[in-house]
Amino acid sequence: MEKKTKLLNAAVLVASLGYFVDIYDLLLFSIVRVPSLRSLGLTGQDITDSGIFLLNVQMIGLLVGGIFWGILGDKKGRLSVLFGSIFMYSVANIANGFVDTVEAYAFWRFIAGFGLAGELGAGITLVAEIMPKEKRGYATTIVAAVGVSGAVVAYFIAQYFDWRTSFFIGGGLGLSLLLLRFGVAESGMFGKTNNHHTNRGNFFSLFTNRERFIKYLRCIIIGVPLWFVVGILITLSPEFGKVLGVQGDVNAGAAVACCYAGLVLGDIASGLLSQLLKSRIKVIYTYLFLSIISISAYFMLHDISLFAFYAICLFLGFSVGYWVIFMTIATEQFGTNIRATVTTTVPNFVRGAVVPLAILFQYLKGVFNGSMIHAGIAVATLSLVLAFWALHKMEETFTKDLDYLE
Q: Which residue spans of the chain are classified as CATH 1.20.1250.20?
């Protein structure tokens, strides 16, 4: 029993490092996309078009993989998904370093996306179920903080190594985690479900009950502002920098690194604040209000220095640094027989929300006569309003006992 109550146990360590490599890979691809495609012989518009194609393929992999791994986690166990997904995205990472065509690149980005979809949900579910309720928040905070820092490491690795070597490093890090698999025990709560004649991992059951579906939808929507910031404001920071009159050329990789450094700090602060206030909901409200301030600063401060712009990117990251609480809420809202399915699919649907957000942003840009600022403000407002709606009447789960079935 003592092993299960230690904050820094094997499960927390593997989940943290697995998420580290997960984020490393996701952000590394965004950082090395242009130089990697250029080395494959592409130029000009072909680099942009192929880059968008590869991102879409990876996103499809994430969405499909999220459903697959989530169902598998509830049917076969958290550990099978945790290590299976780590193995898959690690192999895909290494294979990415050998590609010579866009088609091969696309195939391995799909496999990588499929694999990446499973690790976080399985890790958070396992950690939440083996930790006592008074320590759950601390444990998931460690997982998120260590994991998100993978983005910062990816930026620096890409600065000092060739893009192929950078992928090899990510794959090697992931495969090394498999050495720890013998020290991690399966969730006792999952083990109990083997003794019940219950329907485990039924993804479609989330849609057959109105109350359950609304609860699931709320879990997804509260995370949308986070990926609006990362997917729109940070990804398009070079373009926004020009429109806002930033004094110097904004480097997308540097903006990503600053944002994710803020996310690390925000995740640590939100996790600790949740433990202090003994509430998940109050913390999300606090961070949504911080997001209003940071997004307003992003759009309203014109003609600022490059350093000041990167400082705002850091603040943006901090203000949406509630990923750990968002994931913990999703885990705590549902019973053991469907918990892994929810925890794995929710973050991947939030990531996938970037696609409709980007389409809406492009559409509104046309409506506002090409104004990126007005289009960005409109999409930001919609994201935040929906998040506040989703949080309204959501169940507080800080002291909730997770040993139950749907």
A: 1-179, 202-406
